[in-house]
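ok here's DUF4194 domain-containing protein, seq below lol
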Amino acid sequence: MIDYVEQLSDEEKEQITEVIRLLYRQTFILERKYDRRAEKWQYSREYKICAMHMEFLKEYFQVAGIELVENIYLGVIYIRDGMLMGEKIPRLATIYLLVLKILYDEQMAQASSSTRIVTTLGAVNGKAGEFQVMKSLPSPTEIRRSIALLKKYQIIEPLDILEELNEGTRMIIYPTINMVLTGDDIRALLKTFGEEENSGDETGVQNIIEDLSE
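and the structure came out like this:
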């Protein structure tokens, strides 16, 4: 590894350092992301850097017991070390994550070729209501925090201003949702989640992502 780095220019070394920090911070790097200001999909400079130095980066992360994975079909590079997301996520964000997976799969089943899945906050809350996992509609502040957290991990991309949050607020669901939730029993887990909500038991909330990722 040292020999490889010594052959790089200072600029290339800085680029590698940048993508390593980015992967630690957000877990996923997408090949293409939607630029809301430009209103179009843009290729990721960071993804290109990762792909260029993939073998070195795999060895680098392997030293720390972390696997670097590239899914060419979905256009995602991500780190995996037992738990994909690097922090515990709150209950509402967990609910949204599970619901987003269902909405993503439903739309993908109907799509002919496009993987650009767009949903709305109203659809997310409505689907959560179907599973009775929320006693009441969360506060706008709580919703914004949950959306911001999922955006941080490249799970979604809000298309509208969060300060003007409403049921029509649109968001892209990125294919990274498949890296976090790979189980086929999402609906059953949501039903269990609903039972916990009704009983007031939140013991399963912190472990639900770990269970799905095993």
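fwiw The two ends are 30 Å apart (CA to CA). kinda neat tbh
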